[in-house]
Amino acid sequence: xxxxxxxxxxxxxxxxxxxxxxxxxxxxxxxxxxxxxxxxxxxxxxxxxxxxxxxxxxxxxxxxxxxxxxxxxxxxxxxxxxxxxxxxxxxxxxxxxxxxxxxxxxxxxxxxxxxxxxxxxxxxxxxxxxxxxxxxxxxxxxxxxxxxxxxxxxxxxxxxxxxxxxxxxxxxxxxxxxxxxxxxxxxxxxxxxxxxxxxxxxxxxxxxxxxxxxxxxxxxxxxxxxxxxxxxxxxx
Length: 236
Prior knowledge:
The protein has helices at residues 13-30, 42-54, 82-89, 110-124, 181-185, 200-207, and strands at 2-4, 7-10, 34-38, 64-68, 70-72, 127-128, 131-132, 136-140, 164-168, 175-179, 189-194, 225-229. By secondary structure, it is of the alpha/beta class. The protein has a 7-stranded mixed beta sheet, covered by helices on one side. The protein is globular.
Protein backbone atom coordinates (compact mmCIF):
# COMPACT_ATOMS: atom_id res chain seq x y z
CA UNK A 1 0.00 0.00 0.00
CA UNK A 2 1.24 3.50 -0.88
CA UNK A 3 0.03 6.33 1.35
CA UNK A 4 -0.07 10.01 0.37
CA UNK A 5 -1.85 12.09 2.99
CA UNK A 6 -5.49 10.94 2.72
CA UNK A 7 -4.86 8.78 -0.35
CA UNK A 8 -4.15 5.08 0.06
CA UNK A 9 -3.20 3.18 -3.09
CA UNK A 10 -3.55 -0.60 -3.14
CA UNK A 11 -2.18 -3.24 -5.48
CA UNK A 12 -5.63 -4.73 -6.00
CA UNK A 13 -9.27 -4.58 -5.05
CA UNK A 14 -8.63 -7.56 -2.76
CA UNK A 15 -5.89 -5.78 -0.79
CA UNK A 16 -8.16 -2.73 -0.46
CA UNK A 17 -10.88 -4.99 0.93
CA UNK A 18 -8.43 -6.51 3.40
CA UNK A 19 -7.50 -3.04 4.63
CA UNK A 20 -11.14 -2.14 5.27
CA UNK A 21 -11.71 -5.45 7.07
CA UNK A 22 -8.90 -4.65 9.49
CA UNK A 23 -10.24 -1.14 9.95
CA UNK A 24 -13.76 -2.32 10.81
CA UNK A 25 -12.40 -4.93 13.22
CA UNK A 26 -10.46 -2.20 15.03
CA UNK A 27 -13.48 0.13 15.13
CA UNK A 28 -15.75 -2.50 16.64
CA UNK A 29 -13.11 -3.45 19.20
CA UNK A 30 -12.91 0.16 20.42
CA UNK A 31 -16.58 1.18 20.13
CA UNK A 32 -19.88 0.02 21.53
CA UNK A 33 -21.65 0.71 18.22
CA UNK A 34 -20.55 1.51 14.67
CA UNK A 35 -22.99 2.92 12.12
CA UNK A 36 -22.00 2.48 8.49
CA UNK A 37 -23.67 3.76 5.34
CA UNK A 38 -22.88 1.35 2.53
CA UNK A 39 -22.39 1.84 -1.19
CA UNK A 40 -23.23 -0.39 -4.10
CA UNK A 41 -20.80 -1.48 -6.79
CA UNK A 42 -18.03 -3.98 -7.37
CA UNK A 43 -15.57 -2.61 -4.79
CA UNK A 44 -18.01 -2.81 -1.87
CA UNK A 45 -18.86 -6.31 -3.07
CA UNK A 46 -15.19 -7.25 -2.63
CA UNK A 47 -15.25 -5.72 0.86
CA UNK A 48 -18.38 -7.66 1.77
CA UNK A 49 -16.79 -10.90 0.58
CA UNK A 50 -13.68 -10.19 2.64
CA UNK A 51 -15.73 -9.43 5.76
CA UNK A 52 -17.80 -12.60 5.30
CA UNK A 53 -14.79 -14.81 4.60
CA UNK A 54 -12.32 -13.44 7.14
CA UNK A 55 -14.31 -11.69 9.88
CA UNK A 56 -17.58 -13.58 10.29
CA UNK A 57 -16.49 -14.81 13.73
CA UNK A 58 -13.98 -12.16 14.81
CA UNK A 59 -16.13 -9.01 14.49
CA UNK A 60 -18.88 -8.52 17.06
CA UNK A 61 -21.72 -7.95 14.59
CA UNK A 62 -24.06 -6.94 17.40
CA UNK A 63 -22.17 -3.63 17.41
CA UNK A 64 -22.53 -2.93 13.68
CA UNK A 65 -25.49 -1.07 12.20
CA UNK A 66 -25.78 -0.98 8.41
CA UNK A 67 -27.46 1.76 6.40
CA UNK A 68 -27.26 2.65 2.71
CA UNK A 69 -26.02 5.80 0.99
CA UNK A 70 -28.34 5.20 -1.94
CA UNK A 71 -30.72 2.60 -3.27
CA UNK A 72 -32.49 1.90 -6.52
CA UNK A 73 -36.27 2.04 -6.34
CA UNK A 74 -36.73 -1.70 -6.79
CA UNK A 75 -37.91 -4.49 -4.47
CA UNK A 76 -35.31 -5.89 -2.02
CA UNK A 77 -35.22 -9.16 -4.00
CA UNK A 78 -34.38 -7.43 -7.29
CA UNK A 79 -30.94 -8.09 -8.77
CA UNK A 80 -30.37 -4.32 -9.05
CA UNK A 81 -30.95 -3.75 -5.33
CA UNK A 82 -27.90 -2.61 -3.34
CA UNK A 83 -29.51 -4.21 -0.31
CA UNK A 84 -29.80 -7.58 -2.07
CA UNK A 85 -26.15 -7.44 -3.09
CA UNK A 86 -25.20 -6.86 0.55
CA UNK A 87 -27.44 -9.74 1.67
CA UNK A 88 -25.93 -12.11 -0.90
CA UNK A 89 -22.30 -11.23 -0.12
CA UNK A 90 -22.36 -10.38 3.59
CA UNK A 91 -25.56 -10.25 5.61
CA UNK A 92 -26.56 -13.85 4.90
CA UNK A 93 -23.10 -15.03 6.04
CA UNK A 94 -22.65 -13.28 9.39
CA UNK A 95 -24.60 -13.24 12.64
CA UNK A 96 -25.94 -9.71 12.59
CA UNK A 97 -29.25 -8.91 14.32
CA UNK A 98 -32.05 -8.03 11.92
CA UNK A 99 -32.75 -4.87 13.87
CA UNK A 100 -29.22 -3.65 12.99
CA UNK A 101 -30.05 -3.58 9.28
CA UNK A 102 -31.71 -0.37 8.14
CA UNK A 103 -32.58 -0.57 4.46
CA UNK A 104 -34.25 1.87 2.10
CA UNK A 105 -37.75 0.66 1.19
CA UNK A 106 -37.13 0.66 -2.54
CA UNK A 107 -40.36 -1.17 -3.26
CA UNK A 108 -42.67 1.67 -2.19
CA UNK A 109 -43.41 4.97 -3.97
CA UNK A 110 -40.09 6.79 -4.31
CA UNK A 111 -40.93 10.06 -2.52
CA UNK A 112 -42.44 8.09 0.33
CA UNK A 113 -39.31 5.91 0.44
CA UNK A 114 -37.08 8.98 0.71
CA UNK A 115 -39.22 10.52 3.44
CA UNK A 116 -39.43 7.27 5.39
CA UNK A 117 -35.67 6.81 5.26
CA UNK A 118 -35.04 10.39 6.34
CA UNK A 119 -37.26 9.81 9.39
CA UNK A 120 -35.46 6.56 10.18
CA UNK A 121 -32.06 8.26 10.09
CA UNK A 122 -33.26 11.01 12.43
CA UNK A 123 -34.62 8.39 14.83
CA UNK A 124 -31.65 6.01 14.83
CA UNK A 125 -28.55 8.18 14.49
CA UNK A 126 -27.16 10.78 16.89
CA UNK A 127 -27.73 14.40 15.89
CA UNK A 128 -24.58 16.47 15.36
CA UNK A 129 -24.58 19.88 13.64
CA UNK A 130 -28.39 19.53 13.44
CA UNK A 131 -28.00 16.48 11.18
CA UNK A 132 -27.89 12.71 11.72
CA UNK A 133 -24.30 11.47 11.92
CA UNK A 134 -22.85 8.20 10.64
CA UNK A 135 -19.63 6.87 12.09
CA UNK A 136 -18.51 5.70 8.64
CA UNK A 137 -19.81 6.29 5.16
CA UNK A 138 -18.56 4.37 2.13
CA UNK A 139 -18.84 6.14 -1.19
CA UNK A 140 -18.16 5.08 -4.74
CA UNK A 141 -17.54 7.26 -7.76
CA UNK A 142 -19.05 6.69 -11.17
CA UNK A 143 -17.17 7.19 -14.43
CA UNK A 144 -19.15 10.45 -14.76
CA UNK A 145 -18.05 11.73 -11.34
CA UNK A 146 -21.31 10.99 -9.53
CA UNK A 147 -21.41 9.74 -5.97
CA UNK A 148 -24.25 8.17 -3.98
CA UNK A 149 -26.98 8.80 -6.59
CA UNK A 150 -26.31 12.49 -7.09
CA UNK A 151 -25.40 12.84 -10.76
CA UNK A 152 -23.65 15.83 -12.40
CA UNK A 153 -26.79 16.91 -14.27
CA UNK A 154 -28.70 17.06 -10.96
CA UNK A 155 -25.83 18.44 -8.89
CA UNK A 156 -28.19 20.90 -7.18
CA UNK A 157 -29.58 17.92 -5.23
CA UNK A 158 -26.30 17.82 -3.31
CA UNK A 159 -27.33 20.93 -1.35
CA UNK A 160 -30.97 19.95 -0.90
CA UNK A 161 -32.21 20.75 2.62
CA UNK A 162 -33.55 17.20 3.01
CA UNK A 163 -31.12 14.45 3.98
CA UNK A 164 -32.73 12.03 1.51
CA UNK A 165 -33.94 12.83 -2.00
CA UNK A 166 -35.17 11.04 -5.12
CA UNK A 167 -32.65 11.13 -7.97
CA UNK A 168 -33.05 9.97 -11.55
CA UNK A 169 -30.40 8.07 -13.47
CA UNK A 170 -29.54 10.19 -16.54
CA UNK A 171 -29.59 7.29 -19.02
CA UNK A 172 -32.08 4.71 -17.75
CA UNK A 173 -34.46 7.14 -16.03
CA UNK A 174 -34.47 4.80 -13.02
CA UNK A 175 -35.48 6.44 -9.75
CA UNK A 176 -33.17 6.16 -6.78
CA UNK A 177 -33.22 7.29 -3.16
CA UNK A 178 -29.98 9.02 -2.20
CA UNK A 179 -28.40 10.79 0.72
CA UNK A 180 -27.55 14.44 0.10
CA UNK A 181 -24.37 16.38 0.72
CA UNK A 182 -25.17 17.65 4.20
CA UNK A 183 -25.50 14.25 5.85
CA UNK A 184 -22.67 12.76 3.77
CA UNK A 185 -20.23 15.48 4.83
CA UNK A 186 -21.46 15.22 8.43
CA UNK A 187 -20.14 11.66 8.83
CA UNK A 188 -17.26 11.14 11.25
CA UNK A 189 -15.25 9.29 8.59
CA UNK A 190 -15.75 9.14 4.82
CA UNK A 191 -14.07 6.52 2.67
CA UNK A 192 -14.10 6.88 -1.11
CA UNK A 193 -13.70 3.49 -2.82
CA UNK A 194 -12.40 3.96 -6.37
CA UNK A 195 -11.04 1.13 -8.48
CA UNK A 196 -10.43 0.51 -12.16
CA UNK A 197 -8.73 2.36 -15.00
CA UNK A 198 -12.02 3.93 -16.11
CA UNK A 199 -12.02 6.14 -12.99
CA UNK A 200 -8.46 7.45 -13.42
CA UNK A 201 -9.33 10.60 -15.41
CA UNK A 202 -12.04 11.89 -13.08
CA UNK A 203 -9.96 11.02 -10.03
CA UNK A 204 -7.04 13.02 -11.42
CA UNK A 205 -9.31 16.03 -12.07
CA UNK A 206 -10.87 15.93 -8.61
CA UNK A 207 -7.77 15.27 -6.50
CA UNK A 208 -5.64 17.78 -8.42
CA UNK A 209 -8.55 20.27 -8.56
CA UNK A 210 -8.31 20.75 -12.29
CA UNK A 211 -10.45 23.10 -14.36
CA UNK A 212 -14.15 22.99 -13.44
CA UNK A 213 -13.75 19.97 -11.15
CA UNK A 214 -16.59 21.00 -8.84
CA UNK A 215 -19.08 20.08 -11.55
CA UNK A 216 -18.67 16.52 -10.27
CA UNK A 217 -20.65 15.61 -7.13
CA UNK A 218 -17.72 13.45 -5.99
CA UNK A 219 -15.63 16.63 -5.73
CA UNK A 220 -18.04 18.10 -3.17
CA UNK A 221 -17.23 15.51 -0.48
CA UNK A 222 -15.26 17.09 2.36
CA UNK A 223 -12.01 15.49 3.52
CA UNK A 224 -12.55 11.89 2.44
CA UNK A 225 -9.96 9.15 2.74
CA UNK A 226 -9.41 7.83 -0.78
CA UNK A 227 -9.02 4.03 -0.99
CA UNK A 228 -7.99 3.37 -4.58
CA UNK A 229 -6.28 0.67 -6.60
CA UNK A 230 -3.23 1.22 -8.77
CA UNK A 231 -5.32 1.27 -11.99
CA UNK A 232 -7.47 4.16 -10.75
CA UNK A 233 -4.35 5.91 -9.42
CA UNK A 234 -2.31 5.75 -12.63
CA UNK A 235 -2.58 9.52 -13.30
CA UNK A 236 -1.92 10.66 -9.73
